[in-house]
Amino acid sequence: xxxxxxxxxxxxxxxxxxxxxxxxxxxxxxxxxxxxxxxxxxxxxxxxxxxxxxxxxxxxxxxxxxxxxxxxxxxxxxxxxxxxxxxxxxxxxxxxxxxxxxxxxxxxxxxxxxxxxxxxxxxxxxxxxxxxxxxxxxxxxxxxxxxxxxxxxxxxxxxxxxxxxxxxxxxxxxxxxxxxxxxxxxxxxxxxxxxxxxxxxxxxxxxxxxxxxxxxxxxxxxxxxxxxxxxxxxxxxxxxxxxxxxxxxxxxxxxxxxxxxxxxxxxxxxxxxxxxxxxxxxxxxxxxxxxxxxxxxxxxxxxxxxxxxxxxxxxxxxxxxxxxxxxxxxxxxxxxxxxxxxxxxxxxxxxxxxxxxxxxxxxxxxxxxxxxxxxxxxxxxxxxxxxxxxxxxxxxxxxxxxxxxxxxxxxxxxxxxxxxxxxxxxxxxxxxxxxxxxxx
Length: 440
Hints:
Blueprint: E1 7-10, H1 13-19, E2 25-30, E3 39-41, E4 52-54, H2 64-73, H3 75-87, H4 90-109, E5 110-120, H5 125-136, E6 141-148, E7 165-172, E8 182-183, H6 187-191, E9 195-196, E10 202-205, E11 213-214, E12 217-218, E13 220-222, E14 229-230, E15 234-235, H7 258-268, E16 274-277, H8 284-291, E17 295-300, H9 304-318, E18 332-334, H10 346-350, H11 359-365, E19 382-386, E20 401-405, H12 406-412, H13 417-439
Parallel strand pairs: 1-17, 1-18, 2-5, 2-16, 6-15, 16-17
Antiparallel strand pairs: 3-4, 5-7, 6-7, 8-14, 9-10, 10-13, 11-12, 19-20
């Protein structure tokens, strides 16, 4: 593992994720923007003062080469992302593109026993599920969890049912670890254990079913052996809420409760495992991991994340809430992306001609269309071509490069771009004349 425990990166998470060694992380929890088209900002005077982020997605939020990266490795996913613009709007296509290139890396760095929980809301949950299905496969899907974040809150919705839940998309690798979680028994259920044995252990008799009758009488069920009620996919509990007067509150606009993160961490990791939060915000996942004796790595683009993390960890340490006391000096804060130490395709990429490394960006710039005939193609069916031929001193600069389909590339050869356009126009005129001949 090329990243140490208790490291906080203040950076865009993509270069950080790309720098982490493959199959080194046990659990990833991410609470990214949801494409809500809103601007979030922490209130003045709160511990999170200065923290802000926009959840409004435009062309400036993505790079052209991301289109090619997605189209090259997951052609079907690229088509789904492109279709989202027609179904929803352009911002959804941009949002999914930005999320997909990051989720590629998260899938890569998860251990074979690893799990990932993607926190979202109904705005994009169904689109994100298609992205996750593409990356992890249909067998990688474990659960869609509905977390009720507003219990007892007044519902002012008049034209639809009130939205009270967020969605957690839980995916895992084939050999993923899972520790079942349980809700405590209710008071009435505990009262049913009214008998005591000679050692003072409380028990009740089995009511019916297998094992009801056993040799020597009824089967006994002991209270201290009952783990409780197994937790399902509907998480409705006041213990998982973040009340307005909660001492946990930092003022961070999308803060999640510690109890929620602790449930996830307990379910999908063991002590000593590494937890990663690539959108760590106010460091809830980092604090929860520290409380449960897990290692952690956090990433956030806002410089205020360092201040919030420091405040929360110091307060939790002073109150004895952490597994062991720590100081902020134990946390490494850096803007520098890690350098991978495992085998990667970097060396292979260096052996390619420099201009060939631009194919992904060109695919994004041309939006998958041939720069000659204008038809749309998959990335593998397009070839890099020099607009001004190399024999005419054309350079390898990306401004002199384009993608052409096989037919257009064959027509153009090592001739200038004007020759290709002239030939295509001649073909179009000939086709029109031929069609007129059929009509007469």
